[in-house]
Specification:
The complex is a heterodimer of chains A (about 600) and B (about 270). Chain A is an alpha+beta fold. Chain A is built from seven helices and 32 strands. In chain A, β28 and β29 form a beta hairpin. Chain A is rod-shaped and about 195 Å long. In chain B, strands 6-5-4-1-7 form a five-stranded antiparallel β-sheet. In chain B, α1 packs antiparallel against α8 and α5 runs antiparallel to α6. The chains are: A alpha+beta (about 600), B alpha+beta (about 270).
Chain lengths: ~600, ~270
């Protein structure tokens, strides 16, 4: 059983026999090279038939080497076998020659290799480290052009935003032991991204000579500004290996081979890239997208309930500067509440530029009922291959929003809606213009002008003048009081006129009689009370009611009492004038109070 | 009392507007003004803008003129064809904001202009200003209730009243009047000082107005240094208000409301005053 399984498995393995040929695609005249035919199964004896190597001289071969290995992995046995036939050929002429197909038989089946073209070139006479005399130092065994560093670009004239590929290649005709340092230039003015690349060396022709080419780095550059941008030199230092066959120190056992390491500084030439500005006539919706794109959209359902959320999805796919594309502008009706746009990108980096897709999601909530038109979303890009602008558009659609019954709470008009994190009032418009006659030119600033200071000085001057004037008036006012006293005196004098005459005549009886008549008469006339009704009590009461001080009223009554007493009693002359003056004073006092 | 009415009449005479000098220019301006209003009413905002700009070019300057011009610009910018052009593609929003600011500079109490400016600013990507202190907010709101001249007149009236009440205090015979005179004079004195400060503050804000408005078709880059190769720190849209600090060649250093500084192309900003 086990043997059977092993047999079938090996049969399966042998069922896929590969027979391949390997030779350099490029070689130089006079430079020997190897051609290897490999088969991974045991061939039948003497079944290998080599092709005729036309244009080449067979220096050696075929030399056959076989290898066989058996592996056990997790208890499973697997075996590999290979058999290689090697020839060493020397090109005898320059040109392109074909190594024909070889054939071999495995288990009765015959297999053939594909034919392989080999280009043979006649190299320039310059260089060729191997031909140098052995006496030279190891450094001089490597010519200046044996190791060359080059920065290559896919294009030197591009549009802004269009991407180009730049790659750094090390060309060498000698063995490179080690790369000691590498200074990449600064790609100022570009947005640069490193690309992954296949780093198997290849043989390439440069200035008519054959080199091994090693790709060191590959970048994708996207210019961000227009004009001439110069990429400065890249610097590299390498250690090259030089093998010297020393004939003088030939050792019979180890031979005369000596290996030297030679350090070399390499530098690329600066490269100028001309970045063109976009041509005129960019559409309004152009936002700097360069490349070739398509637009797809997923529109919301055409019927919505108010206050319900939905979204519009727009996908831009293609190749170009996808990373620099900004979200296309979506115009929604004002009663639609907009929320932050979500961006999901699926962008891959490749040698041809970035490609993939970006999806923009515009969520919204329809607030009020009605029929709303959603304007198409426009996206414009510039195609650098044709030099033209293209505008892509979604289709316009109409959304019918039905009322969900909560119209009272929906902030449809004059309400606020969140927009980009800020509050924004909906449905507002500017107020109407002012349509009166053309107004006069606006007056200048008044404050601090001479006119202003004039007014201030005027006000202060008025104050001073008014103060001076009014102070004089106050002083005069005091005189008015004196005058008023005088006027009250006049009344008293008038009233007491008769009594005065009697006093001057020395008629005591008549004087007091006249005094009493004057006093009673004054009150009677003044307060319009009949003399018959007057008593001292009524006088006191009337005077009190008119606001005359009680002591003044008392003094008045006292004069009456004294006059009544003195009417018949003998008394001194001075008495009469004293009573007279006292009466005049009291009447003046009453006048003063009652007048006011 | 007679002295106060006298002072008031003097102030009234001083405030009479100075009648325009060149009657010829004035007639042309009036014709353009009428034409502009008619165009606005007919919805031909481009013609309204042309005519009102001509009135400005003739040397006229008033709050209503700038208000109407700003309105015409705003309406013109809103007249766009969906799909072919976008709103304010010709920089109309920046011009609208600029002219609303100019109207408010001449008349800070113009409520319509303040309302419309608020709407116009809503369409820009202007950043929120750093919140000021309560006192500063109240002071600003108070100052914007009147023009500088309004405050000046009020302060002069307050001065006259203060001195009149001082007279009352000094000269009244009765104690009641003396007391009234003293305290009301004190109050009037405070009002005089406040209104004078408001008038001076308003004058400073108007005469030393270093603000400018971004005027461009969409957005303009603001660089870290006056050099187009330097880092772009911000992209203000048209209509964003900034303060000019200094200029260097084609570049101007500007200060944003939130305190950020940067360099902008001088051609992309226009000063309010």
């Amino acid at each position: 059983m086990l043997v059977l399984v092993a047999l079938t498995s090996s049969c399966v393995a042998w069922g896929q026999v590969s027979f391949t040929v390997d030779a350099p695609a490029l070689t130089a005249l006079g430079q020997p090279f190897r051609v290897e035919f490999t088969v991974d199964a045991e061939p039948e004896r003497n079944s290998f038939k080599a092709p005729a190597f036309e244009g080449f001289e067979v220096l050696a071969g075929p030399s056959v080497s076989t290898g066989h290995s058996i592996q056990f992995i997790n208890g499973k046995q697997s075996s590999t076998y290979n058999c290689t036939y090697t020839y060493v050929l020397l090109p005898s002429e320059s040109g392109t020659f074909t190594i024909g197909s070889a054939s071999i038989k495995v288990d009765g089946k015959s297999y053939r290799t594909r034919s392989l073209p080999v280009e043979v070139i006649a190299e320039n006479s310059a260089g060729g480290g191997a031909q140098q005399p052995a006496e030279q130092s190891p450094e001089s065994r490597i010519n200046k052009d044996d190791i060359v560093l080059k920065l290559l670009v896919s294009d030197t004239e591009v549009y802004k935003g269009e991407s180009i590929r730049a790659w750094l290649v090390l060309y060498t005709r000698v063995n490179i032991d080690n790369i000691e340092s590498l200074d990449m230039p600064s790609f100022d003015g570009f947005w640069s991204q490193e690309l992954t690349f296949d780093n198997t060396p290849s043989r390439e022709q440069l200035n008519g000579r054959v080199y091994e080419a090693y790709k060191i780095k590959e970048l994708l550059l996207s210019p961000q500004q227009s004009g001439r941008i110069v990429i400065p030199a890249a610097m590299m230092s390498v250690l090259a290996q030089v093998v010297v066959e020393d004939k003088r120190h030939f050792d019979p056992i180890f031979g005369g081979r000596q290996i030297y390491h030679v350090a070399r500084e390499l530098k690329t030439a600066p490269i100028a890239i001309d970045v063109k500005e976009f041509p005129a006539g960019a559409p309004a919706s152009f936002n700097g997208a360069v490349g070739s794109f398509t637009l797809a959209s997923r529109m919301p359902s055409s019927e919505l309930e108010s206050n319900s959320a939905d979204q519009i999805e727009i996908t831009i796919s293609g190749s170009g500067n996808l990373k620099f594309i900004t979200a296309p502008r979506l115009m929604l009706p004002e009663s639609f509440e907009k929320y932050d746009t979500k961006v999901v990108d699926n962008v891959k980096l490749a040698a041809s530029g970035t490609s993939g897709s970006i999806t923009y999601t515009y969520p919204f909530v329809a607030r009020s009922a009605g029929e709303f038109r959603i304007e198409p979303v426009l996206f414009s890009y510039f195609d650098p291959t044709t030099g033209e602008y293209h505008t892509l558009s979604t289709e316009a659609m109409t959304i019918t929003v039905t009322d969900d019954g909560s119209a009272a709470t929906a902030p449809a008009v004059g309400g606020y809606a969140g927009y980009g994190g800020t509050m924004r009032q909906l449905d507002r418009d500017i107020r109407y213009i002012h349509t009166d006659r053309l107004p006069h030119k606006a007056a200048g600033m008044m404050v601090l002008t001479p006119l202003y200071w004039l007014v201030v000085v005027l006000i202060v001057a008025l104050f001073v003048v008014a103060y001076v004037l009014l102070r004089k008036r106050i002083r005069d006012n005091r005189n008015i009081v004196a005058r008023r006293m005088k006027r009250a005196d006049k009344v008293a004098v008038q009233r007491l006129g008769m009594a005065r005459r009697s006093m001057e005549e020395g008629n005591r009886h008549a004087f007091y009689e006249e005094m009493l008549r004057a006093m009673w008469g004054y009150i009677s006339d003044k307060f319009n009370i009949p003399v018959a009704n007057l008593t001292k009590e009524t006088i006191r009461e009337v005077l009190y009611r008119r606001g005359v001080a009680t002591d003044v009223a008392e003094q008045f009554c006292e004069i009456i009492s004294r006059s009544e007493e003195a009417q018949y009693a003998p008394s001194a002359e001075g008495d009469m004038s004293e009573v007279y003056a006292f009466a005049a004073e009291v009447i003046s006092k009453i006048e003063d109070v009652v007048k006011r | 009392m007679r002295s106060i009415t006298k002072i008031l009449s003097i102030i009234a005479v001083a405030l009479l507007p100075v009648v325009g000098s060149a009657a010829d220019g004035r007639t042309t301006a009036e014709a353009c003004w009428k034409e502009g209003i008619a165009a606005y009413e007919a919805g031909d905002y481009a013609r309204a803008v042309d005519n009102l700009e001509q009135v400005v070019a003739l040397g006229e300057a008033s709050a209503d003129l700038y208000y109407n011009l700003a309105g015409a610009y705003f309406k013109l910018g809103q007249q766009y064809t969906p799909g072919l052009s976008r709103p304010f593609a010709g920089g109309e929003l920046g011009r609208a904001v600029l002219n609303y600011h100019r109207a408010l500079r001449l008349n800070p109490a113009m409520e319509d202009a303040r309302y419309n400016l608020d709407i116009a600013v809503d369409h820009t990507n202007d950043t929120e200003a750093v919140p000021e202190s309560f006192i500063a907010t109240v002071w600003l709101a108070l100052r914007n209730m009147m023009t500088s001249n309004g405050w000046t007149v009020l302060s002069l009236v307050a001065l006259a009243l203060t001195l009149a009440l001082v007279l009352l205090y000094l000269l009244a015979e009765r104690m009641v009047w003396r007391k009234v005179g003293f305290f009301v004079a004190l109050m009037m004195g405070i009002i005089f000082i406040t209104t004078t400060a408001l008038a001076l503050s308003s004058r400073t804000a108007v005469v030393e107005d270093e603000r400018a408005v971004v005027v461009c078709n969409d957005t303009t880059p603001v660089h870290a240094s006056p050099d187009s190769a330097s880092k772009i720190i911000r992209r203000p849209s048209q209509g964003v208000t900034i303060t000019l600090l200094r200029s260097r060649g084609d570049w101007s250093e500007v200060l944003f409301l939130d305190g950020e500084k940067g360099w902008i192309r001088t051609a992309h900003v226009e000063k309010i005053y």
